[in-house]
Amino acid sequence: MELPTHILLLYGYWLIFGWVLVTLLGLPIPVTPVLLAAGALTRDGDMNPGLTFIAALTAALLADSTWYWVGRKYGNHFLKILCKITLEPTNCVRKSEVSFGQRHAL
After folding, report:
1. Which pTM does this prediction carry?
2. How far apart are CA 103 and CA 106, in angstroms?
3. Which of 10, 27, 92, 97 gives 83 a disulfide partner, CB atoms 3.0 to 4.6 angstroms apart?
């Protein structure tokens, strides 16, 4: 048994939950290989497909809810910070203003 598969079997659902969570919170790590390995292990019967799905879904909902809360509470301030550190700040500001303008016009 290869080491990554063994680690996934050892820590299973918590590893999937944590990996998906930190990826969706913004840490630039690839989540696709972990989910593919988990899918292969569920096919082989080593992991429960329902629990695997629930772990990934719960992490995704938690991360997306966190970003939603950050956007509601600190949206403008947070966008200003992001636009300051982007490679093209004027383009970032313009796109953000257009996007907010379209949503508020509805």
Report:
1. 0.74
2. 6
3. 92
